[in-house]
Design a protein that fits this description.
By secondary structure, the protein is an alpha/beta fold. The chain has 16 helices and 17 strands. The chain folds into two domains: about 140 residues, NAD(P)-binding Rossmann-like Domain (Rossmann fold, 3-Layer(aba) Sandwich); about 300 residues, Dihydrodipicolinate Reductase, domain 2, CATH 3.30.360.10. Helix 1 packs across helix 14, helix 6 runs antiparallel to helix 15 and helix 10 crosses helix 15. The chain is globular. The mean pLDDT is about 95. The structure holds 6-O-phosphono-beta-D-glucopyranose. The site of 6-O-phosphono-beta-D-glucopyranose has 3 residues, from loops. The site of 6-O-phosphono-beta-D-glucopyranose (BG6) has 3 residues, from loops.
């Protein structure tokens, strides 16, 4: 039996036949049901504008579960129970009249969770109509990214939602915050005094955050080409990771204490002026190449592409946080599509010891590194220096890991998908893992100045072959500082 009891809710999913809902949200809800974490009285409403037979739409959801839930986790009894909770309703989200049918299906005694898996341009309309239908009172709204494409447009969306819902009932998703190892960053930093005393410019030389993907655009060219990797990944996921690494200890674990600390980091991020852009930021775009032994097309040759596009699919940059803790410590961020390997990791490089007494030729070995692997093979490894074993080795040093591999150490424990945790947190009314309005805005403000700089300079992304680690310039970005990206093969 699960150790927590979760209150009953009506869960209304707007955009229920979209890719995100079918691939991630329904499987996550199913997993919660399987784990006994959906209250027996919880009802699920699948809302979409697709008309026709409800049965056919419900069958699509069923199909998606069979496709995206691993076969050994499909349990026919749970599937039956899940189906019995689920209803389908055709709605035009922009038409007020359609919300009456929704109101009739919502249990007035239970909180309503309204999850918007739709373009952000309709969030305002949905909120307005929910309120007009008398459904705003006990409702928590969940907003998917991207919220806008710059500061101004994100304000329009946030303000439209705020007209009907207080911040305490708005849940902005950044699915990276639901990942198990990202959660662990808080435990690692603030439950171990060992690290916290070293966590500053006196002891850390630099930090790397890499989120590399092997996938390309996956049929999303229309959306992606308007966004690009900076808006799609840096503005949210990578800046959130940077905040969790760089923030000061919060006073407690409440949502606002954590968010206050994250906002301080975002405020302290130094802008990168146009004259420094070429030295400090590299944009790339993948050309044809080979990924995992398979030939793949370049970005400009993808389905529905526009051969003129100068949208970036890769960004590497050197950020600086101007505060007492981090002054002089570069944060190198890097993310791209169609890269050599799927890996998300954070590497904290500690400074060399203040005085060196070992053989000079081994000097380059000497520095501790903390490697936090978010995916795949979730785990944490601390590279420490030891002496090589053997009578003939003298004081010959080697760097080896003190390792915590979550998948091996906790073999029998399943690592939940980020969306399972996030949906559970919404059902529990807990905002810790969601992004506050000011966080989004400071993140946009910082990204906007980069985009403005590129536009002013007429910057064109540098090509890189699919299956590589990005443009050569991204290697130069870090080698200029006498360093290299950790672990590139
Ligand atoms: C999404 C981006 O937010 O995150 C996608 O829009 C990206 O472009 C995805 O592929 C990566 O998520 P994950 O969990 O696979 O690292």
């Amino acid at each position: 039996m699960p150790a927590i009891s979760v209150e009953a809710t009506t869960f209304a999913l707007f955009g229920a036949l979209g890719d995100l809902a079918l691939r991630k949200l329904f499987p996550a809800l199913y997993q919660l049901d399987r784990a006994g974490l959906l209250n027996g009285a919880t009802r699920l409403l699948a809302l979409s504008r697709d008309g026709g037979e409800s049965e056919a739409h419900l069958a699509r959801i069923d199909e998606a579960l069979r496709r995206y839930v691993p076969p050994h986790e499909l349990d026919e009894r749970v599937l039956d129970r899940f189906r019995s909770r689920l209803q389908y309703l055709t709605m035009d989200f922009r038409r007020g009249e359609d919300y009456q049918a929704l109101a009739e299906r919502v249990d007035p005694g239970l909180p309503l969770i309204a999850y918007f898996a739709t373009p952000a341009a309709v969030y305002g309309d949905i909120c307005r109509h929910l309120a007009a239908a008398g459904l705003a009172e006990r409702t928590r709204v969940v907003l998917e990214k991207p919220i806008g494409h710059d500061l101004a447009s994100s304000r329009v969306v946030n303000d439209a939602v705020a007209e009907h819902f207080p911040e305490s009932r708005i849940y902005r998703i950044d699915h990276y915050l639901g990942k198990e190892t990202v959660q662990n960053l808080i435990a690692l930093r603030f439950a171990n005094s060992l690290f916290e005393t070293q966590w500053n410019q006196h002891h850390i030389s630099h930090v790397e955050i890499t989120v590399a993907e092997t996938v390309g655009i996956e049929g999303r060219w229309g959306y992606f080409d308007q966004a690009g990797q900076l808006r799609d990944m840096i503005q949210n996921h990578l800046l959130q990771l940077l905040c969790l690494i760089a923030m000061d200890p919060p006073a407690d674990l409440t949502a606002d204490s954590i968010r206050d600390e994250k906002v301080k980091v975002l405020k302290a991020l130094a802008p990168i002026p146009p004259e420094k852009l070429s030295q400090r930021v590299v944009r790339g775009q993948y050309a044809a190449g080979t990924v995992g032994g398979k030939a793949v097309p370049g970005y400009l040759e993808e389905e529905n592409s526009n051969a003129e596009s100068s949208t970036e699919t890769f960004v590497a940059l050197r950020a600086e946080i101007c505060n007492w803790r981090w002054s002089g410590v570069p944060f190198y961020l890097r993310t791209g599509k169609r890269m050599a390997q799927k890996v998300s990791q954070i590497v904290i490089h500690f400074k060399e010891p203040p005085f060196y007494i070992f053989a000079p030729e081994q000097r380059s070995l000497i520095s501790n590194r903390l490697i936090i692997r978010l995916q795949p093979d979730e785990g944490i490894s601390l590279q420490v220096m030891t002496k090589e074993q053997g009578l003939d080795k003298g004081m010959h040093l080697r760097s080896g890991p003190l390792q915590l591999n979550f998948s091996e150490t906790y073999k029998s424990v399943r690592i939940p998908d980020a969306y399972e945790r996030l949906l559970l947190e919404v059902m529990q009314g807990n905002q810790n893992l969601f992004v506050r309005k000011d966080e989004i805005e400071y993140a946009w403000k910082w990204c906007d100045q980069l985009i403005d700089g590129w536009t002013r300079l007429g910057d064109v992304p540098k090509p890189y072959p699919a299956g590589s680690w990005g443009p050569v310039a991204s290697i130069a970005l870090i080698t200029r500082d006498g360093r290299s990206w950790y672990g590139d093969l």
